[in-house]
């Protein structure tokens, strides 16, 4: 199977993720929302579901004035898988923090990305809090549940 060179796409995707972090740090809900498709879905780690760019933008406008005020995003990509020329899934770790000391990310995040005429956008986002102690217990008592790649 012939795999195209994805270097430019990977760079553009990392730039999109960086733009999300930059918008968050600046509490810029409009810039944050522009990273998502018009019909995007967004699931928070507490289970709240937002549908569409407008809902994502306005909910973050409120969040930036309240619970997440003054926070920044820490993030790292674990994997990027292309499902076709214009679709990718990014799995990463992330968290919010204040100040200059970045914590070890406590959440696992999945982004489904699509290429639109003006660049890559997030079509779906899911954020799950990682439960390290429960995970360690599971691996100890059911070692076959440990992922092959971590």
Note down, in words, how this protein is organized.
The longest helix is centred in the first third of the chain and has 19 residues, at 7-25. A six-stranded mixed beta sheet has the order 2-1-6-5-4-3. The two termini are 26 Å apart. It is α+β, with helices and mostly antiparallel strands and 150 residues long. It has four helices and six strands; from the N terminus they run H-H-E-E-H-E-E-E-E-H. The protein has helices at residues 7-25, 29-34, 53-65, 132-141; strands spanning 36-43, 49-51, 72-84, 87-97, 107-116, 119-129. 32% of the residues lie in helices and 37% in strands. A hairpin with a 2-residue loop joins strand 3 and strand 4. The model has no long low-confidence stretch (mean pLDDT 91).
């Amino acid at each position: 199977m012939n795999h195209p060179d994805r270097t430019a796409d990977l760079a553009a995707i990392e730039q999109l993720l960086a733009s999300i972090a930059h918008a968050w740090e600046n509490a810029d809900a409009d810039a944050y929302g522009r990273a998502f498709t018009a019909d995007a879905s967004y699931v928070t780690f507490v289970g709240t579901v937002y549908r569409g760019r407008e809902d994502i933008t306005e909910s973050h406008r409120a969040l930036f004035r309240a619970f997440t005020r003054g926070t920044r995003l820490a993030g790292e990509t674990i994997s990027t898988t292309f499902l076709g020329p214009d679709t990718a899934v990014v799995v990463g770790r992330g968290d919010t923090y204040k100040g200059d000391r970045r914590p070890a990310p406590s959440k696992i995040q999945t982004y489904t990305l699509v290429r639109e005429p003006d660049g890559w956008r997030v079509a779906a986002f899911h954020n799950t809090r990682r439960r390290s102690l429960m995970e360690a217990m599971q691996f100890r008592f059911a070692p076959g549940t440990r992922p092959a790649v971590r």
